[in-house]
Input
Amino acid sequence: MMTRPGAGVVTIIHDPDDDPEITRAALAAHDPRRGQIVVHPTVGTNSAAMLAADILTALGCHIDEDTDRAQHLGTPEAMFAAVAAWLAADGIDLVVVVRAHRLTQASLRWLAVLAHAAQLRIVAIWHDRRPPDWAQAFGSPGGIFRETCDLDAALAGAQMRPTLPPTLSADGLPALAAMPVSGLARFRAEAHQTLTPPQFAAVDLHYRYGLQRACVWLTTQGRCQPILEALGADRSQAAPNVTTSSRSATACLGRARGRQPRVPAPRPDQVGLQAFLTLLSGSSLTPSATVARLRGAQAGLLLHGVLLQVPAELARACGPGLTGPCVTEQLAGTIRQRLAHPRLAAALAIAAIAGRPAASITQRPIPLPPGHHGNLIEIATGGSRAVYSVPGPAQPLIDAAAHYCRLRPRDEPHLLAGVSAAQVQRAAEAVGVVLPSSTDCDHRDPWHAMSAAWIVGDPVHRTGTTTPRAQAKVAAQ
Amino acid sequence: MAEQIETVSGEPAWVGEHDQADHYLHLQDANIVGTRALLTCQDNLDDVIEAAAMACMHGSAGFGKSLAVNASLRALAPHNTVRVVFRSRPTTRDIRHALFHGLHLPGQPPGHPIEFDRLLKAALADRFRVLVCDEAQWMSRECFEYWRHLWDDPSTQIAVVFVGGGDCYRVLSREPMLASRIYLWQRFRKMEPEEILSVIPAFHPVWSEAPDQLISYADLHAGHGNFRNWARITNHVLQARRRGGADLDADLLKWIFSRLGGG
Output
């Protein structure tokens, strides 16, 4: 991440006259979408943990008595680790603290630590006499404090964060029980025959989305290879006699035309396939949408000479997009609001993404997402491992847990260390999320881990830049 | 913990409450008289409400501050006023609880201050309210900071009126956070002798027919331009009448002065 000017510095706005306009202007600067939050400390308390709770509140967390009791965020160390984790995950780089002169030295010291450790810009509004030495007042080494009267200059530089693309609506989709049960070959025809025109239109929208995403995935997958390698993609799943380099080459069939191995051959890169399938289902609002997208993806992959096998009875399968709620921006916001503990928030998000019971995600350690590739997580289920793409709205939740782990080196080095199934279940109830029970999933592997791709022939896709011909033209230019 | 002696709030208590309750000793048949101070108070509070500002009404005990504020707000904001009074030094926790009850919020008060404040701010953001903090001289710096916290919050829609006697002005004006935020100060003073002559006959039927000399006599020896003293004198007159039907004259007043320690 690029370090911005002023990062790691505590800027003090000194206003001994306590001008209400300064407070008003500071409070109005609260805008997490632009990477800046304003903390209005709670009156009548003076602990450092309460300041951390105030920062978490400014970040949108819902702090109550449960936060320190059930979520074990009672100590300043744990609270400030959670603060730093959420700040980093949310891309917040400016924290304004009004009424800073009322904070205890312990709280002020934490602010300085936060500025330095998280490379934040902290603006502290001080309405009291100037202390002899700011470093002494903050109980911190000097060199990071700047004093000014210019609030506007201290607040300048915020930039709007990019917004997530909208999710395809599930309006008009039939219930899962009404969806066609046929496989790829007859799915669309059966949908046309058995559904009402509006229902078919809704199903077809998701079908075409799945088809299009499959085409895009195959032609751009090469870019994901470093991520997959960082995750330690299981080489044993690769087809025999296929080297890593040739796997990369065959990943995009358009470019590999004429060089693929004898068909039918198992398509290597099971991890990449799982990542794609869960990316597709991760933004799917209902199980019906997931089924339609998967059938569309099957059609799209077949256009590129790849046969995607999925469990025969998809409607009864267990896993992402089928047995868990979609982590939308709204749900991610509610999880964030109710669960200040990053690990607990991530645990619930992962259970929802995976569509698994709480117990199955806390049974075995989930490794930290590697490096900067936090958009994939890996969960061991049964005898196998499954990889899941993290949908955009859930990304900050996973990122915050990863940051939290790195800030708590004494804890076990797992994403959800210390989180129990009972805690996740209680969290789900608090948030209003229904997770599948162990009975629902019956210890079955998730559907995407049971899926496989086979290279069965030449690509026949002939539209857009994804065709070999179009790519050849582009290359010639 | 400070003892909360009164929380009058919102619609039910405020609207239904009779004006009588505003008077010292709940004096029967007493009227609220449009004194200069009361009329000024009403104008001031009108401005404070319009500006959603903070104000301070201060002056010695018995000069009619609380009565003027209550009467004015009954006219100006009968459905939006929440009044809290504390007998001794309250804490911020006491204020939170007083507002919780004053706003008629459902359920149990939250245990965590952040949760409590979130609830109160949500209620105070719902619609405009006038928060009256009576006996403000008892408030600590922390308590004033709490009122400021609520008032500064961008979501709340409130005006805050501090009413206090004694050294209220000194206490509030030495707090920079309040000194810079108080939109207006109104000092209540004792009524001048000429105002007494116009106000007291309207104040209570007992005095409606009384000659000016008798009223001036009573004010000189016991009233001292102070409404609370006049309420006390009037109550004694009513008691004397109930007992023996005595006429309102200098002799009766002398007897009353002796009971008040002023004769």
